[in-house]
Amino acid sequence: MPSALKQKLQHSQDPILEFGASTVFIGRNGGKFPYGNSVLVQGSEESIVIDPSKSFKSHIGELPEIDRIILSHCHQDHVAGVHLFPDATCHAHENEVYAIQSMDGICELHGVVADERTEFESNVLEHFSFSPRPDTIGYKDGDIFDLGGGVTIEVVFTPGHTHGHSCLLVRGEHRKDDLLFLADIELSGFGPYYGGVNSSLEQFDQSLDLVRSMDIPWFCTFHHLGVLDKEAFLKRSAQYQGMIGYRENKLRDYMSTPRTIDQAVEHRIIYRKTDVGPSNDRSEHWMLTQHVDRMLKAEQLKEVEPGLYQAC
Ligand SMILES: [Zn+2]
Fold first, then answer.
1. Cα(238)–Cα(212) distance, rounded to whole angstroms?
2. What are the chain's domains?
3. Which of 27, 103, 173, 192 has the fewest CB atoms within 10 Å around its CB?
């Protein structure tokens, strides 16, 4: 980081970490939702921000001119700082460009139902400063942004959390500083979230296999953990991916007597019993539906009557 920028940033209340060309801005409250960790990448020709978060605006005025914004995906907390850079070119995965282009798009990505639409719109405007960017350009797996001076950002398509979710691999002069931005492969104790309308358990599991096979020294999540070295990443990601099997074991136990998916939703397998409300019900339902499909194929469950499942 240029020393002038370093001096300006040193009074920041939230931690700022440097890895060669990458500067990680830990979000408010340690990057806990609705905040998140954002990454500034500086090459000799361009400066790019990945996932400008809600708390990123506290750094505006201290940053170099930003040429591009790259979005890992378009959930509301990841796009909350897009409005800060109206002159920067905006990029999102081609599957998900629509979600940053309009209010209709972000509502569609979030699976907003008709009677929740007014509340969602006012929330996303008031708390996430949503500012549609109809000029957003789509990227795809393997695309490389060249920032000059040997600094690049490569797209690693990792669908599952959403259908456009991508990790971003920052490479600079020294391999020891390479950093993979994991976005919402967040490695939390909750486990992988694939409860959205555009989420996929199968894809999330494959994406975890992919990132766990990558030989990178540093990994950065958007929430919670921030930056981990490879050893810590492998440990946390094994626990995180293990939650998929843990959920299936719970479901198998619950379905030792025949049950419907609706009964399992009410019982709660994935969320806690205290996580009530229609939005949690919908997520639990979609996540369990995907588990049931997978377990039917693996002959771990059988359908004893239409819509009624029992462990084999
Ligand atoms: Zn997300």
1. 8
2. 3-241 (3.60.15.10), 255-311 (no CATH)
3. 173
